[in-house]
Amino acid sequence: MNWQRLRTWFSQLPTHVIIIGLSLFWLIPTLGLLVTSFRPVQDANVSGWWTALSSAPGGEVYQQYCADCHGADGAAILAADLSDPDFVTNYRRSLQIRVTLDDEYNGVVHMAEETRPSDQELADILAFLRRSSGVETRPRFTLNNYVDAIVGYRGTSSYQASCEEGTQSPDLTCNFIADINNPRGMWQAFLNTLIVTLPATILPLIFGALAAYAFSWIEFRGRMVLFALLVGLQIVPLQMTLVPISRLYNQLGLSATFTGVWLFHTGFGLPYAIYLMRNFIGALPKDLFESAYLDGATHWTAFWRLALPLSMPALASLAIFQFLWVWNDLLVALVFLTGRKPVLTYQINNLVQSLGGGWHLLTASAFLSMLLPLIVFFAFQRYFVRGLLAGSVKG
Ligand code: HEC
User: Fold this and answer.
1) Nearest to 74 by CA among 285, 65, 114, 176
2) CA of 42 to the centre of ligand 1 (A)
3) Do 31 and 50 belong together in one domain?
4) Fewest CB atoms less than 10 Å from the CB: which of 5, 124, 312, 364?
5) How far is the CA of 346 from the centre of ligand 1 (A)?
6) Is residue 392 part of a domain?
7) Is 83 helix (H, G, I), strand (E, B) or coil?
């Protein structure tokens, strides 16, 4: 008995190792994004996110390269006391330190070429010196990036700092409640994405389930042919239809409207929705429906009372996939909504392009846009696990 257990445990070991390895492989960059999103702009621009987690960011790198001569606290060389704030203030950029390392002192090279820290390490060292000498009093973590992303502020410092100095950009009032509605910020985009996503998820679900019921339990001519055609539609690439449909929308006055995007997503979601739901509803026990019809149930009641409740697991997984697809979609939103009704993906794209290295905004807005999908996933995931017919068919 125990041997049996042990053997299954060992036979599953490779699978477990692979799964854990894969999860780590994805989780670590995600953790990096999360940490970066809470770091002050100035730090995020010069040092890696992992340095923020150590007790003295950059401290190990300093120990490794400079402590031998300058001492653990930097005070060992009187003429170059690296713990002296006045001295450290002279070094604004890590580049200046690199130049210093090229100098000769008393005929000895400061540091031989091959033993020098890399640019990234120098940045870490400088950050460490500035912090330990007290030049830098900035907290290590901040919520500023999230505030900046929400109000769409793209300056070099932060929304809060620039408001205190009175140098905010012209379209911001420094009244947070008012600025939250700034069309360049994430909040408006969040609302727009929500307006796009909810109907674009619910409509294919409803129509898909209705059609699937018809394909499974209503006899009509050409049923299989029609179904086969619909299944075949799944392979139509979305890109192919962009031009004809935007021309059609222009004529109908549907361009840059939510209705247009809803219709588009519903159209492209339906083939797969029908296919999946048909497989599910068609596999429900036949007796169930026949006895319902014998009792005088119409198709309508059979659909609402039997088919729909019983296919909850399929509906839930379909809802999750459709929701995620629409939520993360950029192409359709870009073509059919344009910048006039910016969605989250559009706004994130803007934050990167207009600021080259705006990692702090990019990471914060990425997490803002992940928030709702995560909530939806955890809210619905029990449907995946829940037994298929549990509790619905009594003996
Ligand atoms: C081999 C010993 C040695 C190592 C290793 C070393 N330094 Fe120095 N450093 C010196 C000496 C010696 C001076 C010159 C002191 C003087 O001015 O007489 C100096 C001076 C400096 C100065 C001041 C230059 C100026 O403007 O006067 C800076 C800044 C500095 N070091 C930074 C660093 C950093 C950062 C590291 C680690 C990457 C480092 N040093 C590693 C020996 C060293």
Assistant:
1) 65
2) 25
3) no
4) 5
5) 48
6) no
7) coil
Residues 201-217: b if buried by 16+ CB within 10 A, e if exposed: bebbbebbbebbbbbbb
Q: Does the beta carbon of 105 lie inside 6 Å of ligand 1?
A: yes
The Cα-based distances of 303 to 40, 205, 213, 283, 312 in angstroms read: 55, 14, 7, 14, 12
Our count of domains for the chain comes to 4
- Give yes or no for residue 388 CB within 6 A of ligand 1: no
Given this model, what pLDDT does residue 45 score? 77
In the chain, % of residues over pLDDT 90: 40
Residue 312: count of CB within 10 angstroms of its CB: 15
Quick check: CB of 117 below 6 Å from ligand 1? yes
C-beta of 240 in contact with ligand 1 (< 6 A): no
Q: Report yes or no on 395 lying in a domain.
A: no
Q: What is the pLDDT of residue 395?
A: 35
Query: What pLDDT was estimated at residue 27?
Result: 92
pTM: predicted TM-score of the whole model, two decimal places: 0.74
Q: Are residues 293 and 191 in the same domain?
A: yes
User: Which residues constitute the domain of residue 256?
Assistant: 186-385
Q: Are residues 270 and 302 in the same domain?
A: yes
Cβ atoms 310, 392 nearer than 8 A:
yes
**Count of CB atoms within 10 A of residue 7's CB?**
10
